[in-house]
Design goal:
Blueprint (H helix, E strand, L loop, with lengths): L3 H22 L3 H4 L2 H4 L10 E5 L2 H13 L6 E7 L2 H10 L8 E7 L5 H11 L3 E5 L5 H10 L2 E7 L3 H8 L2 H6 L4 E4 L2 H11 L4 E3 L3 H4 L24 E7 L4 H14 L4 E6 L5 H10 L4 E3 L12 E3 L6 H7 L2 E4 L12 H5 L5 E2 L12 H4 L4 E2 L3 H13 L4 H13 L4 H16 L1
Parallel strand pairs: 1-2, 1-4, 2-3, 4-5, 5-6, 6-7, 8-9, 8-12, 9-11, 10-11, 12-13, 13-14
Helix pairs in contact: 4-5, 4-19, 6-7, 8-10, 12-17
InterPro entries: Glycos_transf_N, Glycos_transf_N_sf, Kdotransferase
Keywords: Cell membrane, Lipopolysaccharide biosynthesis, Membrane, Transferase
Pathway: Bacterial outer membrane biogenesis; LPS core biosynthesis
Length: 425
Amino acid sequence: MPSDFLIKTTFFIYNTCWKIVIPLLRINKRLAEGFSQRTLKEKPLKADLWIQAASAGESYLAVEILKNLKFNRPVNILLTSGTKQGFDILERSIKQIKDKHITAHTSFFFFDQPDLMNKAVNLIRPEIMVLLESELWPGHLLALKKYGCKTIIINGRITDRSLKKYLLWKSFWNKIKPDMIYAISESDAKRFSVLFGNESVEVMPNIKFDRFGNNEIEPLIKNPIVELFKHNTSFIVLGSIRKGEEPLIEKLILDILKRRPDTVIGLFPRHIHRNRHWSKALERMNIKWSLRSKTRNRAVEESVILWDTFGELICAYKYANAAFVGGSLAPLGGQNFIEALDCGIVPVIGPYWDNFSWVGQQILDEGLIRVATNRQEAADILIEHIDNPLSREKIKTAAKEYMKHRQGGTAFACNVITDLLNKIN
């Protein structure tokens, strides 16, 4: 185990680095949002239960938990996220609370400066800390450990790549480790066990299965994508495209438009700041394109719409004739293809989807996803889906049946949380 002196020295250096960096972070537009909360200028309220959702994906998991929690006594809940999109999802979720005993409020997640985190934890005074999926910050974990808060990971997942980084100083992470980890698969559980030991790791059903069928367009009255197109326009979505696969996606776009020049492609970068790259790339490729924000109230005449607005990927999937889900043409682990399937589209993905292997190989065997070995095959399948459209209702029915046998994660998580709170009180 690392000596107390080494731990203290490490955190002293870590704390000093944060002190230097925090004033500069205000320059970052993403981090400038909620800056007063991130720095505790705006103080959080006391909470019995604190749930941290790193970004949008984890925030949707928090929503599922919040909707299903039931208590027989008053419980205050703090919901935090590090991103504006995640924060907004949590804000909306408060309106869906069904238990009269629950009072909930939100905040942006605080910067991990140890001094700041100590202050945050002592202001919040949580009895239970729930980390969703894999949100591990050393300043945060140490502050919780010092305060004596019970810390658990729900819907836990960890990649081989992340594990290797943590193992560089395994003893350090064991000093501040969570009390319990509930992992979404046997393979994730084994990786967590290598880092933290078998005694603190269990397997649970993935909450993401419970979210299937829960992607209604709210509070919109109708799908805004419909108004962008002329009747019978073929529309392909390229969703959640990652930086590491951009050169392959460029060739994919050129291939599709060469073979189907009347097709419109909706391009959704996983990170919106990559729009600058795509603006230059589309100009270089001599493709007629426009930003989504420039297409409002008019029919699209361009070949590519570059999405620069949040919250419309589900809307696009619901309208599209075919969809490719990114993070999968290069070894990046893949992105969430269940959203497209939930909209009645068989998603096309590349060969790298190990981050979503928990969905099960059977989903491929049943034809509910199509895995292309390369970008040429991806283009072939997308065009096949346009030429020979599949029944959305049949896809939804088959997918619902597949998911039904894998659900139960939300109930599991809620039972864990309520049992812990009951034991503490």
